[in-house]
Amino acid sequence: MTAPSIARLIDVMAMLRDPVAGCPWDREQDFASIAPYTVEEAYEVADAIVKNDPSALRDELGDLLFQVVYHARLAEERGWFDFERVAAGIVGKMIRRHPHVFGDADARDAAAQTSAWEADKARERSLRALPGVLDGIATTIPALLRAKKLTARAARVGFDWPDAEAVLDKLDEEIAELRVELPGGDADRIEDELGDLFFVMVNLARKLGVDGEAALARANAKFERRFRGVEAALAAQGRTPDQAGLDEMEGLWRTVKAAE
Fold first, then answer.
1. What pLDDT, in 10s, does the model give residues 82-120?
2. Helices 110-127, 83-97: crossing angle, 10 deg rounding
3. Mind telling me which Pfam families this protein's record contains (predicted)?
C-alpha cells in the first residue's frame, strides 16, 4: 500500500520539474535554494511532536518527505543518484548498524547501541578519508548542537574537563574575561568572549547530562508564560506593557512567578 504512494509522489515531483509542462517556480530551484525549506520542515515536524498533534505531525512528515524527494530529483537530473538509491542506502546502513537485530550479534542495551553506533560512524568516516576526530560534523547545523557534537567527540578521546565543577570554574573565568570588555569594548572582542561563554555552557550541560537545547527551550517557555502573565495583569487594568514602567512590570513578574 505504501509503494504506490511513494511512486506517485516521485512522479509528481518529476512533473513539477518538467522543462515544458512543469511549475516555473519548481523548475528554477536548486539544492541551495531548497535547503532552507528542508530545515524549516524538520523544525515543523519537531513542533508538531512537541504539541502532541497527530494530524499536524502526519502533514509535516509528508512535507519533510517531499523535501527528500525534491533533493533526490535534483540529483537524478544531474546523473548522481535517484530516490531508489537514497532509500536503498539508508536501508543498508540501518541493517549494518543494527547487527543485534538483523544479524547474530548479542543483544544490546541503549548505551551499548549508542557506543556501537558511534564506532560504526567512525569507521565510515575513515573509509571516506575523514580520519580526524571532528571530521564529518556538518557546519550548517545550529551552533548549539554543533558545539555539543564537537565537544562530545573530543571528550571520547580524553580531551575534556574532569567534572562539572571544573566547567563551572571555567565559566567563572569566561565571565570575568567578558567583563573586561565591558562597557564600551570592541564589538568583535565582545562577540568572541560571549561565544566562549556560550561554548562553556554547552559543555556544562553535557557534563550534567542535560540537553542544552531542551533546557533553553524550557527557559524560553517559562519566560513566555510569565511575560504573558504580566501582559494579562496589565490588560485587566486596560493597559499594555509599553504603558508600564520597568519597576511595575518587575513586580508583576514576581507575582506571576510566585503564583506558579
1. 999 999 999 999 998 888 888 887 777 777 777 777 777
2. 130
3. MazG
